[in-house]
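Bench notes, afternoon.
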Amino acid sequence: MRPWSIEYRGRWEELELESETLRGNALGDPTVRPLWIWLPPGYDDSDKAYPSVYVIQGMTGQVDMWWNRSAFRPTTPENIEELAPDCVVVLVDCWTSLGGSQFLDSPTTGNYHTYLCDEVVPFVDARYRTLAAAEHRGIAGKSSGGYGAMVTPMLRPDLFGGLATHAGDALFEVCYQPEFAIVARELREHYDGSYDRFWEDFRSRPAGSKENDGRLINAYAMAACYSAGELPFETATGKLKPDVFARWLEWDPVRMVPRYADALRSLRAIWIDAGTRDEYYLDLGAEAFRQALEEIGVTDVRFELFDATHGLIEYRYPLALAYLAERLTPR
C-alpha cells in the first residue's frame, strides 16, 4: 500500500450540503458544499455516541486539498486514521473565490459563520451519533483555520466546548500590517494602484506565478472579511486608515478575549501552538493570545512553540485532535 495509501480502519464518508445561508452570496460562490466525515473504528458495531471535532482550513483551502500528499509525509486523512481518535471528525469547506472567509459573516463574502454553526453542525448531529452538546464538540484549524478555531467558540459557546489553533491569525498589527506597504507598492508599480487590474491579471494566468500574488490576495480577502471590502490603507502610499484598521482590530482574537471572557472560561479544552520561525510572526500572536487568556483567569491551556516555519506543520494536527478528543469525552 505505502507510499500510495494506507488501509483504513475507520471510515470516511463524502457528503454534500446545500446551504440556504450561502444562497445569493455577493461573490456568486457555490451554495452546494462538500463535507467529509470520519467515523472511528467500531462506530458501526455499537450504539455509542461520540464527541465531534470540526476541522477547518487555512486561507485558499478547499476540502479536497486535505488529500494532497507532500513528499515523504502522510496526508491529513491518513494521520487521522493512524491516530484513530475516539471521536467523529468533520472536514468543513468554507472556501471563497477570494481564497477564504475567515469563518465569519460578511456582506462581501457570505455568511460562513452562520453556515458552519447553524447548518453544518445540525446536519452532522442529525445524521451521526454525536454527543450533541457544546462540552463534547470542538473545532481545530491552522492559520486562517486557526483563526476560525479561536473566534468561533467565543461567538458560539453554546455549540463549541474546545478549540485547537495552530499558528492562527492573531495580533493583527504584527501579522497583517507589515504587508500593507508591500501591497501598496505592488499595486502602484504593476497595476496603476487598482485591485481591479490585479484581479484581471491574476485570473488571466497561472495562480501564484508572480511573487506577491499571495500578499495581494490576502490583504484583499481580509478586508472583505473584516471591513466589508474597505482596505485599511491607502493604495497610493500604504498609509494606514486608522478608522478602518480599528474595524479589523475588533476581530483580532487577542483583543476579543476580554469581551468574550465568560465564553472562554466555559471551554473544556484549549490548544495553542505555532512555529518559532513563522514568517507571519504568528508565534507572537499565539503568545499574545495565551497571555490574554491568562489575564481573564484561563490557565488550563496546552501551549507550545516549536521549531518550524508557517508551513509543513500538519504533523501537529493529530496531536491536538487527540487532546480535544480526550478532553471532550464524557468523564
